[in-house]
Amino acid sequence: MSKQEFDDRVDRAVRAAHGSWTNILKSLTGDHPAFNGKNQACPICRKGVDRFRYTNQHGEGMYFCHQCGPGGPFKLLQGITGWSFLQALERVEAQAGVVATSKPESNEPPTQERMKKLARKIWNQAVPVKAGDEVDRYLRGRGLGMAQYPDALRFHPALGYFEKIGDAKSRQIAEYPAMLARIDGADGEALTLHRTYLQDGRKAPLPDAKKVLSAGVNGAAVRLFKPTDKLGIAEGIETALAVHLSSGMPVWAGLSAGNLEKLWLPDSVQCICIYADNDGNSAFDGQASAYALARRLKKEFKRTTDRQVQVFVPKQDGTVWADVWLSRLNKPRRVA
Ligand SMILES: [Zn+2]
Question: Average model confidence (pLDDT) for the chain?
Fold first, then answer.
């Protein structure tokens, strides 16, 4: 492996772990107290009582020691475990779900590989969305009908719906038609799926009508449209489609507020418009994660080029852009 290839590999691991360093480091060190954010003895220089603190600045797993200085997650991990850099890298890759190009697949945690396989199986049972199917009816009902739907969406005619009863293993209780959305990791490979269970052209009346198949989405996105030098970002799939229909912009869906701020974006995108959900009637999660993403992107860009980042929030508390789009469609056109 050349120096460049190795640097790329490290870079990919760092991107995949972004925003998840605390969990990754804790799980690799058996919940070592170094990551509790409190001042304490330094695990690197192994001295003092309060000289060290884990800051996790910008979600990058950073620490600061008043004696041996600042540092990043790999140095910290090596300091605590005694691993070599390569050993630390391999373990971080496994935790962050990165498949190292030079390593056999057996290096990956088996559960993640199993989930990927399950996602592939469900995806292959589904078919592209066509006029008249349940997904088309559902989207049309929200003013989001399209002549041709993105490849990242599919229609599953009868997807099992599982529910956990008490401590028992979750059991399939019914089957519903569903909209599937493929969630791609930073490497562009399908990681898992998002499911929206449907009934009679609407979201099915279930406690969990919308859900991701497995945990660990970690900055992955539903890549609905191919980015140009511009890319729109929204939380929900419906909102992403609404933004695309109203602006023509390519848009990706980040699926949750927590994931939005970790989103991985290609370097080729020069202008990013973030279409936030307005969660002003609750805890402002939508706005907070949109601005957290904007802030992170701005800081990252400072190091490379000056790309533009804008955030758009719908005016009314408790609404998303998909609602704004639908209300505009339903309003009679004003004649100027
Ligand atoms: Zn130190």
Answer: 89
**158 and 263 housed in the same domain:** no
Q: Residue 104 above 60 pLDDT?
A: no
Residues that place a CB less than 5 A from ion ligand 1: 42, 44-45, 65, 67-68
CA of 29 to the centre of ligand 1 (A): 18
* Domain span including residue 174: 109-215
If you measure from the C-alpha of residue 24 to the centroid of ligand 1, how many angstroms do you get, rounded to a whole number?
21
The sign one gets for the Cα dihedral 316, 322, 325, 331 is negative
Buried b (16+ CB within 10 A) or exposed e, 274-312: bbbbbbbeeebbbbebbbbbbebbeeebeeeeebebebe
Tell me the pLDDT tens digit for each residue of 237-282: 999 999 999 999 999 999 998 899 899 988 888 899 999 999 999 8
Predicted TM-score of the model (pTM): 0.67
CA of 76 to the centre of ligand 1 (A): 10
Same domain, 55 and 83: yes
- Give the confidence band of 182 by pLDDT, cuts at 50, 70, 90: very high
Q: Torsion over CA of 54, 57, 60 and 63, rounded to 10 degrees?
A: -30
At 313, which CATH number? 3.40.1360
Q: Is 184 in the same domain as 227?
A: no
Mean pLDDT computed over 37-48? 90
The domain that holds 8 is classified in CATH as 3.90.580.10
- How far, in Å, from the CA of 178 to the mean position of ligand 1? 53
41 CA from centroid of ligand 1 (Å):
8
Kindly indicate the confidence band of residue 34, based on its pLDDT and cuts at 50, 70 and 90: very high
Report the CATH number that the domain containing residue 179 is assigned in CATH: 3.90.980
